[in-house]
Structures are given as structure tokens and as C-alpha cells.
Amino acid sequence: MKTFGIGIVGCGNISTVYFHNTPLFKGLEVRACADLNQAAAERQAEKFKVRAVSLADMLADPTIDIIVNLTVPNAHFDVSMAALNAGKHVYSEKPLCLTLDQGQKLLATAKAKGVLIGVAPDTFLGAAGRKARELVDAGKIGKVTGGTAFIMGRGMEHWHPDPSFFFQPGGGPILDMGPYYISALVNVLGPVKRVSATSTIGKPERIISTPDSPKLGQAIKVETPTTIMSVLEFASGASVLFGASWDVMKHSHPPLELYGTLATMKIPDPNFFGGAVEIADASGEWVSVDTSVDPAGAINWPVEEPKNANYRVLGIADLADAVRNGSPHRSSATVGVHVLDVLLSILRSGEERRPVDITTPCQQPAAWTNDALSALFA
Ligand SMILES: NC(=O)c1ccc[n+]([C@@H]2O[C@H](COP(=O)([O-])OP(=O)(O)OC[C@H]3O[C@@H](n4cnc5c(N)ncnc54)[C@H](O)[C@@H]3O)[C@@H](O)[C@H]2O)c1
What we know:
It is a single chain. The protein is of the alpha/beta class. It has two domains: 4-119, NAD(P)-binding Rossmann-like Domain (Rossmann fold), CATH 3.40.50.720; 126-297 and 331-363, Dihydrodipicolinate Reductase, domain 2. It has helices at residues 15-21, 38-48, 55-60, 73-85, 100-113, 127-137, 172-176, 178-189, 314-325, 333-352, 370-374, and strands spanning 4-9, 28-34, 51-52, 66-69, 89-92, 117-119, 144-152, 192-200, 205-207, 219-221, 227-234, 239-245, 256-260, 264-267, 277-280, 286-289, 356-357. The strands form three sheets. It has a nine-stranded mixed β-sheet with strand order 16-15-14-13-7-12-11-8-17. A six-stranded parallel β-sheet has the order 3-2-1-4-5-6, sandwiched between helices. Helix 5 (100-113) links the parallel strand 5 and strand 6 (117-119). Helix 4 packs parallel to helix 5, helix 5 (100-113) packs antiparallel against helix 10 (333-352) and helix 6 (127-137) runs parallel beside helix 8 (178-189). The longest helix is centred in the last third of the chain and has 20 residues, at 333-352. It starts with a strand and ends with a helix. The site of nicotinamide-adenine-dinucleotide (NAD) has 23 residues, from helix 4. Keywords: Oxidoreductase. Residues 130-265 form the GFO/IDH/MocA-like oxidoreductase domain. InterPro entries: Gfo/Idh/MocA-like_OxRdtase_N, Gfo/Idh/MocA_oxidrdct_glycsds, GFO_IDH_MocA-like_dom, NAD(P)-bd_dom_sf. This is Gfo/Idh/MocA family protein.
């Protein structure tokens, strides 16, 4: 089996889990890393025993097959485009880019260069996302007519060391956290056809309060909506109410609930890979389906004190498998562009106070069996 050389671009907060998880999968090896901030690249290079290089050197390196783009959202397009133009496969953190036009350019360039481009999240490919998909596909909850999705909290300025980007265009709860929810819903229900939303900025300014941040006490001007309430209409006929906010101190909504003609289903936090899927039929009793026994479901993160299942890199393993076999991959940028269209359309609907039709085509990603997925683990 070919081993794919990986180059990680962007050595910030999320890069650690990518470095750490890559060896969990067969045929993947991180060989180099790069960052605008040379010290950040050198820190991760030393910790994970890889080479710290410039982006240009990484792109010219024939031993690097896949560029993993973990830069901040407004750098995603340029870095991914440069990598595609260098003939590399790309896997980008979310959001894929900031405009639909950029998304289409990335897809067209990947096609022209004969390489694949994938995008996070790959969380929906975890044990819980796969179980929810399996149960819906098997008709266990009947026809899905509705649902709710809620990602609400008080913001990011109290835990992230450098949270400014969350409050600029490209950030906000819709583009930052929305990809997990919309991807999870598209995985289970298929494409979205129309969205309607309202939006507002809760506080014009945020003060960084992350205890050990070098920017502690600095103010961030908020330039993107922080509370967005929307309704998503799926091509399947289902409608999902989606609340996304960083202006909420506390709430009691589950992350995702689907209402079927036979049963209601609760899907655990789509920011993680595991958790229990719960179903209640006409009897009114919740039945819990544990997914921690399934591949990519066992609790493993954070390493020092594991509380969640975190198998980031699963989408890269799927992409590499697709390159080997010429088969479609699941967290593909085609799905990513549709998800981006939904997210940007929610923001546009909120701004323009009118429903927005979703124009980008998207096929529901192929279902993934435990056996097929297990085969990718080392
Ligand atoms: N932090 C998380 O928990 C988390 C979780 C999931 C996804 N993400 C996503 O991962 C991405 C990175 O997030 P983060 O929290 O690690 O951010 P971060 O700010 O901690 O790290 C980003 C790094 O990218 C570097 N960078 C920026 N532009 C660059 C460029 N043009 N070329 C090379 N390096 C560049 C920065 O110097 C920085 O070191 C974002 O898209 C974010 O949405 C983050």
C-alpha cells in the first residue's frame, strides 16, 4: 500500500490533533510542516519529529502528496489553491473558503489538475454520525419531517489564545461551527434546497479573557453576526430549525434532533465523533444506542484526560483511500461547497431578510460500513 506524505500548513491550536492522529491510520505520514510564524512551525516540528519548511519548499517537495491546510479561514483559499496548482491533493480545515466563487474555483482547479480536495468536518464520519445515518437509511424513524439543530454558547474569547478571527467575516457561529451541523444533517438527510434566517450582532466588541493568552484584555471589534436563527428546507421535504449563537449564557436544547413519522432521534454533538444516538418511538421511552464500541467511536481525547472521541484525520484517510481506489471520498469539497453555500445563504438571508435558494448540487456522501472504515486504521 502506498504511503502518502502529508505536509501540514498552519501549526496553531488544531494542528496538534492532526499530528497526533495521523499515525492511527494506515498509509499516512506527516513529513513536514509550515507556518507564517516560523516559531510555531518549529515548535510542532520538534514535538512531532518532522521538518519545518517554507510553504514554497513544501509544495516543491515530491515526497509530499497531500497538503493539510490548517491555516485561519481567510488564508484557506490561497493556501489550498497554491497546493492544487502544485499538483498536490488537499484537505482543508473548515470553512473551505469564504465565497462560493472561491469554492467553485477550487473544485475546477482540482479537476483540471487531476487531484482530490477534501474539507473538514469529518466528524460526521465518526461512529455516531454513521449510526444515525444507518438508522435513518434503515427506516427506523420513518420519514423525517423536521428537526432542530442548536450550537449556542457565550463565544470563543475566553478559551482560544488568539480568538480575533472568530469575529471577522469568515468566522462567527455560522461559518465556524455551522459546518459540523450542516454536514451532519446533509449526511443523514441529503442536500438543502432553501434557507430563511434572521441575524444580529449581540455585542459590538469582545474582550479577550483567555487566561494565558498573550492578547489577554485586548478588544476585538465584532464584524460578523453572532446570533443567527434559521430554517433549513431539505430536498427530502424535511425542515430543520437551526439556532446558532455566541450570545447565549446557557440553554437546554440538544445539539441535533430529528422528527420522523415513526420515532424521534437525538444525534450527539457533531463536533465529536462518538456518543450515544437515542431513539424514542410512540412508547415515549428513549432507547440509547452506544457507539463507543464502533470504529472511530471510543473516547480518546484529550490524551491526558480523555472525555470525547476525536478521530480528526479520518477524512484524510478516506481521501487517500479514494486516490488509491479511484472511488469517491466522503468529506469531499463538492459536499463542502454545498455546505458553504448553505452557510453563506443563511448569512445572506439574515442580511436581506428573505429566503434564499441553494443552487449548488450535492450528493449525499456514500454510507460507510464499520468494516470498510476499520480497514483504514493502522
Ligand atoms: N481550534 C480548534 O479547536 C479548531 C477546531 C476545529 C477546526 N478548527 C479550524 O482550524 C483552522 C485553524 O484553527 P486554529 O484554532 O488552529 O487557529 P490558530 O490561529 O491557532 O492557528 C492557525 C495558524 O495558521 C497560521 N497561518 C495563518 N495564515 C497562514 C498562511 N497563509 N500560511 C501559513 N500559515 C498560516 C498562523 O500563523 C497560525 O499559526 C481554522 O479554520 C479553524 O476553523 C479549529
